[in-house]
Amino acid sequence: MRPALLPLLLLLALASLTLGLAVGSVPVPLGEVWPALWDGDAPHRAVILELRLPRLLAAFAVGGLLALAGALLQVLLRNPLADPYVLGISGGAAVAALLAMLAGLGGWWVSGGALLGALGSMLLVFGLAHGAGGWTPTRLLLTGVVVAAAWGALISFLLAVAPEHNLRGMLFWLMGDLSHGGEWPAPLLLLGLALLLLFPFARELNLLARGEIAAGSLGVHVGRLRLIIYFTASLLTAAAVTTAGSVGFVGLVVPHMLRLVAGSDHRLLLPASALLGGSLLMLADTLARSVIAPQQLPVGVLTALLGAPVFLFLLRREATR
Amino acid sequence: MELLRAVSLDVAVAGRSLLRGLNLSVSAGQCWALLGANGAGKTTLLHTLAGLRPPQGGSLWLQGAPLARLPRRQVAQRLGLLAQDSSDSFPATVLETALIGRHPHLGRWDSESEEDVERARQALAQVELTGLESRPCHTLSGGERRRLALATLLTQAPRLMLLDEPTNHLDLSHQIGALQHLRRLADGGEHAVLMALHDVNLAARYCDHVLLLFGDGTWQAGTAKELLNAEQLSRLYGYPVAQIAGPGGERVFLPR
Prior knowledge:
By secondary structure, chain A is mostly helical. Chain A contains 14 helices and no strands. Chain A has helices spanning about 5-20, 30-40, 45-75, 90-100, 110-130, 135-160, 165-175, 185-200, 200-210, 210-215, 220-245, 250-260, 265-290, 300-320. Chain A is globular, with a radius of gyration of 20 Å. The termini of chain B are far apart. A six-stranded mixed β-sheet of chain B has the order 6-7-8-3-9-10, sandwiched between helices. Chain B has a four-stranded antiparallel β-sheet with strand order 2-1-4-5, with helices on one face. Helices cover about 35% and strands about 30% of the residues of chain B. Chain B is built from nine helices and twelve strands. The interface between A and B is medium-sized, with 28 and 33 residues.
């Protein structure tokens, strides 16, 4: 079944996309979704092309980026419970983005601030963990967790002092939200590039997952590989957070789910994570804007609600096998 | 042919000097036992010889080339290490695990060929794991896992094999089986084996050379014939050891 996994996931992605294009305040029959993309005179063309498609592509890119970053960090930290946010990157992004919102700035300032905050946090954690020579997974993890906790405190502080009318926007950003999204070309391009660049390192990832002694004695340049993983995963996370705020759960659960189903070969796991993460976020976002329409939910709430039961089911199946 | 040479090698861990001025030459056809008390530096030395940690001083030569300057991949084609313990944080099958031994022989864009899979299967057969190929590793027993790690090293097939307590967790017959296989490889004349062992009698039975680490920086290297005796071993372990003759006249060592 393993070779068939990628085509299956591709189908799932296309199905999620079709569904997302069809569902909404102006429902489009499933059969008319794809023709509307090519046909200039189709009745729902504007809704599909200008509103739903950009948002869905952004959702796909963000989900793919997060799942890919999660898969990478789980190897780097040798911890199946690592997610893209564990090293404090989203925290740094959130503090900067919330500050921009508090200052009454919108749009580009918020995403630009998030990007700067994420990159700053990445360098801070790297510097602190690397400072005194040793760079073990445990040390990196602890440094990241502590820095993330500090960001968390700052976030709470900002929420506490924020005026009432800013709070809703800030909370939505924190939970992960695509409703003002549509910035899809950059994250989607980054996702594709990352997959291409990572593929030749996939077998080395398989080895690093078995520990640095095993990897080193089988010919992996462990130090260099770790740097590549750390900075790639951080950039992917920064891009995702910049686009959609901190959408939770995708980065933790998607790679883990795929490991349970398809094993730990990263040549398969990396593209599969990107596809499944993207599909999951497209589905979640479609639900987020339609379950209690016309009101919209932050998509982060839905990812957790969708992902948790599926994950628990897989875990149970694994235990009884 | 000389596979590994250490020239006045100093090894220290956390500021404590474990080994000073080690000169060692390991040639194809030889089987070395690395003996020493707990904490004497056997594992640290093996990691140093494998190029995984830099020595405090001295130099290492792998088939005539300076180890520190060889690319890791070339090192792994010539030298392999069986680590003291292997961990599996992520699920993988037995065959997949044995197959990672082919990593240094494959290019960045290659994937494993039929021939690689065949090599892995043969290695699994050599450690009597045939039939378990598709089992997830975490369902194996401790001894089976140890044999799987050995199979991965055999799949890697380097000329110099460094092994850190290869008989850990193995039952009596598999201990003999594993060491016999390594001995046969060395006898073939292409390979050399250097392994840390705790069982002096297995060392006496299968190894022709020994390296003794006394833990205070001093060491002795030479043939098993001259170095394996009650006096040396008593000093090595800080406990009196007696030598008796076995049923075939071979040396057997017992703690007093």
